[in-house]
Amino acid sequence: xxxxxxxxxxxxxxxxxxxxxxxxxxxxxxxxxxxxxxxxxxxxxxxxxxxxxxxxxxxxxxxxxxxxxxxxxxxxxxxxxxxxxxxxxxxxxxxxxxxxxxxxxxxxxxxxxxxxxxxxxxxxxxxxxxxxxxxxxxxxxxxxxxxxxxxxxxxxxxxxxxxxxxxxxxxxxxxxxxxxxxxxxxxxxxxxxxxxxxxxxxxxxxxxxxxxxxxxxxxxxxxxxxxxxxxxxxxxxxxxxxxxxxxxxxxxxxxxxxxx
Length: 260
What we know:
Elements: H1 4-7, H2 18-40, H3 42-55, E1 61-67, E2 73-79, H4 94-97, H5 100-108, H6 115-120, E3 125-127, H7 142-145, E4 153-155, H8 157-160, H9 168-181, H10 184-200, E5 234-238, E6 244-248, H11 254-259
Parallel strand pairs: 3-4
Antiparallel strand pairs: 1-2, 5-6
């Protein structure tokens, strides 16, 4: 089985400027979608908050500074799923600190719901590369750092193609694939795929980990160049040298071909 990073590099290319046109309207969809979800989901949000309060106590929310578009820092808000670090009680690793309620919240992705507030504030989008830790900014390659050309998302292409089960290089390949191919059709398909992934509880944790493995940097081999369609019909891609290219392949679901 070829990895996404390797498979994405094998597709033909041609130019397009569709992402720029879409960027003009995506913010409207984000605001309408997030506001609607917050209103409709208010009872669910309240119920989860009460459950956390009863089992974990305060604080109900987990807040952490994350890098957004262009590396600008913002405070991401999620529902709390872990106990505080306490070496005296043996609460050090994620596996030790993750509670049964927290594990369920992560499995159902309900812990992500407060990020809708980040979307309304313009710090995140409904769909985009997930916001990783600030310390990763120092060890990204220039190609990997391209994931910050767009707002981070609550869900994204990497999340519907393996989530935490993916190797880091494949996560980045899908992130850059999204950056270069973003559009309304792709966003809608990712959101539909997200429902399926959440219902099946796929990719919740990395193999052998309670959550995910730490990113420690990329070895010296060159970055993969994602240029093939994954969920969309046409793809704009930019390689490590900064050149802009795109691929178009009728009926091309590259991820499906890579998995075969």
